[in-house]
Amino acid sequence: MTSHHFEPTTYYISFGSHPPALRIASGDTVATSSIDASGINARGEQVAGSPNPETGPFYVEGAEPGDILQVHLDYLYPNREIGYSSTLLAPHVVDPSYVSLLPERKRVEWRIQPDSNTAVLITPLPGLPDFYLPLSPMLGCLGVAPPDGQAISSATSGPYGGNMDYYGCTAGTSFYFPVFVPGALLHLGDGHAVQGDGEVVGTGIEISFDVRFTVHLLKGKQIHWPRGENADFIFTLGNARPLDQALQHATTEMLVWLQEDYGLDTYAASTLLGMCVQYDLGNIYDPAYTMVCRLSKRWLGSS
Amino acid sequence: MTSHHFEPTTYYISFGSHPPALRIASGDTVATSSIDASGINARGEQVAGSPNPETGPFYVEGAEPGDILQVHLDYLYPNREIGYSSTLLAPHVVDPSYVSLLPERKRVEWRIQPDSNTAVLITPLPGLPDFYLPLSPMLGCLGVAPPDGQAISSATSGPYGGNMDYYGCTAGTSFYFPVFVPGALLHLGDGHAVQGDGEVVGTGIEISFDVRFTVHLLKGKQIHWPRGENADFIFTLGNARPLDQALQHATTEMLVWLQEDYGLDTYAASTLLGMCVQYDLGNIYDPAYTMVCRLSKRWLGSS
Amino acid sequence: MTSHHFEPTTYYISFGSHPPALRIASGDTVATSSIDASGINARGEQVAGSPNPETGPFYVEGAEPGDILQVHLDYLYPNREIGYSSTLLAPHVVDPSYVSLLPERKRVEWRIQPDSNTAVLITPLPGLPDFYLPLSPMLGCLGVAPPDGQAISSATSGPYGGNMDYYGCTAGTSFYFPVFVPGALLHLGDGHAVQGDGEVVGTGIEISFDVRFTVHLLKGKQIHWPRGENADFIFTLGNARPLDQALQHATTEMLVWLQEDYGLDTYAASTLLGMCVQYDLGNIYDPAYTMVCRLSKRWLGSS
Amino acid sequence: MTSHHFEPTTYYISFGSHPPALRIASGDTVATSSIDASGINARGEQVAGSPNPETGPFYVEGAEPGDILQVHLDYLYPNREIGYSSTLLAPHVVDPSYVSLLPERKRVEWRIQPDSNTAVLITPLPGLPDFYLPLSPMLGCLGVAPPDGQAISSATSGPYGGNMDYYGCTAGTSFYFPVFVPGALLHLGDGHAVQGDGEVVGTGIEISFDVRFTVHLLKGKQIHWPRGENADFIFTLGNARPLDQALQHATTEMLVWLQEDYGLDTYAASTLLGMCVQYDLGNIYDPAYTMVCRLSKRWLGSS
């Protein structure tokens, strides 16, 4: 149960079997930082390329393919004053016939105000005077190394996690990833101070973060897609295109979970999902889209 | 501002230019009822075929193509004791490789308890003993007649509304539909006592309803997809396959709405959506899927 | 085995249970005509609205739901001199990021030259001087009335056929449609003198046609999607979005056909498709896309 | 213009920046071999893992990001007697409601007969007695290393090529790939003696191959997706899900090609595609699907 403080110096723009940045044990906590999606750190220095340079990977001692890595996000917060966001819906989230009406994409800036826990829009936009939003810090990227020696761009996602851009990837949440390589190799990055569903403009409020997380290894238990949990909900994440397929992955993973761990047969699990499931749209911007299948713990017994 | 009481005797299984069941004026309120998706009424009698037999159509005097019909749902409540639901995820919402593991579909029954505002599962299912859910009555079907003399099955949906199976179609909510034919021809049906996102088992708790609604005509204002509003949110609905396309329709409609009615230019509207939008999954069961683009009114000025 | 000559006077812009234009018997042949997609006839007169006004419907005596209607296209040929086509790829067939580079859509005209069986481009386009194409006359629309009292726009398609825009819908080909209503109610229209795969600009060379066809009724044999046959191939057509789903429908219909009529079990039918199937893209322009699953008769025994 | 003979000893199951197997120059020809998709070589020995172990990568001297690598397939032929194929349509190419009717997947074997240039089915299947097919040898996998240090499973494909499973990847065909890394790093593998469109059973007739190819470097010319050419056609390949998106990539690449190299403006290029384009389905089995946009050279001037 060691507490590590880790200052990253190298960043990777893919999820892969890169040389471990730090070796940790199950139960350990790591305080570290992430730089923004364009490679700028807390001091405004360009220290890596884009997209989404990742902190890590963290090698978890004893992790083997077929295990699960639990990652609890203890703390996430912007560690500089100014973040930025894009100002234009992605052409693939509007009707094809509307695309030619969109103007040129540009950036706006936001000031992070920790006192009020808000982000204030500092680039003037018509119709949004004195505009600010409550902070809701989240990690756009979180995941482990994929199997078969792959190294996959941090622009996208898969069964190993990655750039899922799920607004529910917040402090107080635990994620569960299938382990594909020895050490699991945890990567994290792409902090957003605020982001709506789907990351439909291609960014949240992009900014560097201070991050603290704790890992636990669950030996010999297999899952096929990332899972998660917070105080109120359990959830599963599917990453694919189109959204329909992302939803199929997340729903199947939840169906299996309910049957294996909660004592429900297929009928009971289906009935529960049919009447109570909630779906969140992670991202509809990246090469793989993300759908989240979420269920309130109030419907689940004390198993 | 007449209050009508209308007892339906004929039901249609398509949204179309059927003979009007009742002629009403802008501002009028209608108290009526709907039968369940399989055609069974409040007294348990089979009075129509499936799928989703519709009450109406209601002819709104003065409505012309190019207008908007506003429908406020004043009241919705089950009007009989027993509802039913399906017990199996649809094969197209799980991974194709998982489909062959699904058992035979069957029905379960629920007892509606108005005193506690709950639905109690009365068919035993392993893992769900003494299971009940809070009621959240909603209409699966709501819409007007489509253009060009079409009559389209009440199993599906389109720009005219239809079988959208959106759990947000509840009392206290207003919907706005484009008018395609003289009189608009409002249809409603397919009441669900409870339903999760997506209607992933192909049913909610299906039951007959008492319904009261009020219409208003908004002359000479064009929209392309249904819109809606409740105390806290405005929203738009896109109906298509795949989900990606349904989302494009809903998002484009919202983008236009923010620009036309809320004083935002494309950059401001996109920024607001990028940081604050929420998406709801209406249905992923019917021939056309439904995605809802929703925005909190707290971000919108007093326009 | 009567030969009818039918001069249409009314055209419908939906596939539906419209009043029959002519009553015919199984084995009958009908010589008739179709107007172009915009409602212009052989003499250049605007005689109907758009899209795709249909000739018919033809009521086939004795046709009942659960039967199959075979339609053999005996003859198709443009019956006027000038046709037109659009000049721009549809925004949904190019990358979303490319859409804003597309200029305004416009029309070009073509002269039909029966002597050489060619269409000559008569509107100058840079890079296409003296450009002509061999004629390959086909019907964009062919189908029967859908079930449940529906009337569905002739812009789209479904299990009943409709606007499939398949370049293989040529003289010498037979189509098989499921019968959903008494009389089957055959519709046809939307002649193209030439068209590439997918109708990717939204038109072929649009023109009015002389058409001759022969119908046969196959009693008591059910199919779920249109099938077809010519001298060399059997094929099935699926109509849906996205293409993936259209392909699923066409492939499943072919798999069933091979098992029911050609003495193959699932393994043999799958093996044959795996090694020998060809897929054609009907349309990727209309609300429902069309994929065609095609198999050479050389691989099929004499069953 | 050296002719190399290269006997592979190492195989990779990803397209990536692996250590070069051989360094060659523009204009060089390489005679080599590939093992089958399951890692079995010409002598029936298991020499690598699955899926689709690749021969190479071949480092082309002087190739830099922003160049094009042309690969001409000079010769392809099975180099052992027995190949195998799967016998069952993939669950995602049939209707979801049909999936549960599919039996267990199994393998059948085929004997390659060079004298008659045929493959003879040697595992008995009901309805296919004495069944044989003409050989049409093709490579399922062909491509270069992806950018950004990625290594991507040889089960899938992208802008760099990969597992496209296009039946048109035959001797006599040239492919053009964008170069993303120094040396381009050409990979090849996954030979099929015969395969239908789409690889709908998940295999062709899988077998090891003798392969001869010739490379040419085209300096300083950028493309975004693979292109190809044979005696009669030019074509482009898009790799993505769903098919709609794969088609968008291929069509956009062709539109750009026609404008940049063939003297057509957008209207002329669109018109040509609209009336003459053909689409081939590469694969609808792998994680990314492949659509091919193909145009006959007879419509293109002598540019």
Describe the structure.
- The structure is a homotetramer of 303-residue chains.
- Chain A is mainly beta and 303 residues long.
- Chain A folds into 3 domains: 3-80 and 137-218, Jelly Rolls, CATH 2.60.120.580; 82-134, no CATH class; 227-299, Endonuclease I-creI, CATH 3.10.28.
- Helices cover 10% and strands 36% of the residues of chain A.
- Chain A contains 2 helices and 21 strands.
- In chain A, the strands form 4 sheets. In chain A, strands 1-4-17-6-15-18-19-21-20 form a 9-stranded mixed β-sheet. A 6-stranded mixed β-sheet of chain A has the order 3-5-16-11-14-13, with no helix packed on it.
- In chain A, a hairpin with a 7-residue loop joins strand 20 and strand 21.
- The model of chain A has no long low-confidence stretch (mean pLDDT 97).
- At the A-B interface, helix 1, helix 2 and strand 20 of A face helix 1, helix 2 and strand 20 of B.
